Amino acid sequence: MILAIDTATRVISLALHRGDRLVAEHTWRTENVHTVELAPQVAVLLAQARVNPPELDALAICLGPGSYTGVRIGLAYAKGLALALGRPLVGLTAFEISLFGVPPGARSAVVLVPAGRGRYIVARHAASGPGWQLSGAPRILDVAGLLQELALDPPAAVVGEWDGLDEDALSALRARMRIAAPAEAIRRAGVLAELAWRKLQPGAGVDLPAGAELAPLYVSGPAGGGL
User: Fold this and answer.
1) How far is 119 from 134, CA to CA, in rounded Å?
2) Are 121 and 137 in contact (CB under 8 A)?
3) How far is Cα 50 from Cα 38, in angstroms, rounded to an integer?
4) Predicted confidence (pLDDT) at residue 87 exceeds the cutoff of 70
5) Could you tell me how many helices (H) and strands (E) the chain has, helices first?
6) Where are the alpha helices (DSSP H) in 125-188?
């Protein structure tokens, strides 16, 4: 059983996954009170699923980028719990989680992650075999810069959290590229857990760092400090 935790932005998501099925998932929007809400909601999720912490086989955590505070709080909590239980901790980026929602056949995608104060972390990716390759360094853009960027070089799909864009902007973009539907425009911890489970399987060929060695991913410093 894997407990997955994603606190990288104002959307917090938790999930329990046992490999063959998603056992439980809880996703909600927080008002910058990650510290207050995280531990109690983990306890509620475990209790509702009738899972005791020692029954966990591993934990998974979103490493960011996103909110400087949110990423740090989630990673610190996950490290502490993994250490207390003596369980492995798998870290994945917000980009990896969001790319799970790219429609089949798309060869290019842009991932959006809120960076606070009306800005977005914009990360272009190109399909590479069965996975994705980052195309250039992620950048932080305001809405005007983001729209210009996408208009000049439209990707096949845009995924991630775009809910700060108004309907006029979305309509213009939808005419040229596939924009994730509202239900898809969110990082779900169920996806994080499933990806982590795959990395943990024997023969996966993934060299996982020790949980204590995992570090937050930031873009140009604390990109989401204003979240």
Assistant:
1) 20
2) no
3) 18
4) yes
5) 6, 11
6) 143-152, 167-174
CA atoms within 13 A on the CB side of 200: 23
Q: Which residue has the tokens 């998974």?
A: 60
Tokens of 1: 């059983």
Span 24-28, mean pLDDT?
Answer: 97
Query: Both ends of the chain: CA-CA distance in Å?
Result: 31
What's the pLDDT tens digit per position in 134-146? 999 999 999 999 9
What is the pairing mode between strands 119-128 and 139-142? antiparallel
Domains and CATH numbers, the chain: 2-94+187-213 (3.30.420.40), 99-179 (3.30.420.200)
Query: Average pLDDT for residues 10-14, to the nearest whole number?
Result: 95
Please say whether the beta carbons of 94 and 67 come within 8 A: no
Burial, 40: exposed, middle or buried (Cβ in 10 Å; 0-12, 13-18, 19+)?
A: exposed
Spatial contact of 8 and 67, defined as CB atoms under 8 Å apart: yes
Over the stretch 104-144, which tens digit does the pLDDT of each residue have?
999 999 999 999 888 999 999 999 988 999 999 999 999 99
Tell whether the model's pLDDT for residue 49 goes beyond 90: yes
